[in-house]
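Run folding on both entries below.
>entry_1
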Amino acid sequence: MTDWSRLHDAYGAAEDIPGLLDAVRPDPKDPGWDALWSRLCHQGTVYPASYAALPALTEMARQWSTADRQMPLALASSIVASADQPYGDDDPQVAYASQISDLAQLTEEALQDPAHAGDPSTYVYLLAMLLSFQGVEVWGEELDGLNNEEYEVPCPMCDAQNFIVFGEHGFFSTIDSMYMKPSTAAKQVPLRPRDPAALEGIAQKLHSRALADGHPGIASKLTYVFGDAQCAECDVVFSVEEAIVSRQY
């Protein structure tokens, strides 16, 4: 049995966490989720109580339907992916390997739910969670940029913040944060998507999976995320992927 009084969360002793876990419901608007997130993954920081909550979150996801389990999966994936861990704590990928393996399988089941076939945003959201449970660095946290159809990244040469835009507003790089306004006169430089046949590693894996799962639009966006952009300030050409990764370090 876990002695929660000996653990701490963002606000101190964690003896209230079991009650919060027992009371929360699948509805994302349930205020219990805000309380749990604030205490267990506060601004991306995790605590001893955060890891201790993984078994309960795993069981919650197991008991709830594939349509209802997104909230426990999301909180668990953020805990697992956090790089801001308590000093001296064991790697959660090792200490909680069994729960994380189960969480990955539960996420896979949710990804295969036919209800998500016409919902690419939820698909990306779940796929990002899966990457976190699989220990894939960076992309478990960064993949949701696909839903936003934008990444803001620094130019590796001049450090100018470039908006990498791919979707409703076009496919370009710009330094104008208001690029979506029709009246903008800011410079927009076309992106250089990667040929799908040239994708490798995680890029190839994600592209192939998106196609196999019936999401060609997501697969197409990935060719831009793993392609090249030209800085709208200094004109240097750079890898979008490398610029995204650099923000994590």
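>entry_2
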Amino acid sequence: MGRKRGFDETAVLDVVRDQFWTTGFVGTSTYDLMAATGLGKGSIYKAFGNKDALYVRVFSDYCQDLVTQAREQLQDGPQAVLPSPVARLEHYLVSLAEAFAAESPRRGCFLTKATADRAGEDKLVAQTARRAYEDLAGLLAAAVRDAQDAGEVADHVDGTALGYLLLSVVRGIDSMAKAGVDEATLRRTARAALDLIPKIDPPQFQG
């Protein structure tokens, strides 16, 4: 059996992720990682590989968590956070807008940051980011189709295209939040995007 590591791997990876998230790949040196984790260079490389491998590791973990959280917020069925699919979409988008605005400092989403910082130079980062975007757009599209099945959204709407559109809105809200746009505006932007989806009016019953 291998010797047990003398540190909490999950805690170390969380610290490393936050360091990369805050200062970026280029702006983070191995010495920065050593200072943040309290580990020596040899311990870091032996446990996780070099700086590139460590970045991909924490970024991949972050993306998986992001998709899991979205799935929990948007899923249909007994575990749904709200009975209405449209209400779940609104809750998801608005809660993200509020979360982006509540950060101090506003560093935004690590997925957005890593895509801008590293996707052009690192194929693994690009592949991980693309997979995360596809998964998130797919979950949003599934929620739109749930809304169609529930009679809340018009049948002619392209759920897949709307999934990517709503994802683009989220990414845009993220960027605007980093630039200092106020929370109320971010919330209104999220709701305005949902208002553009063709809805089906509930039937009016004659008394």
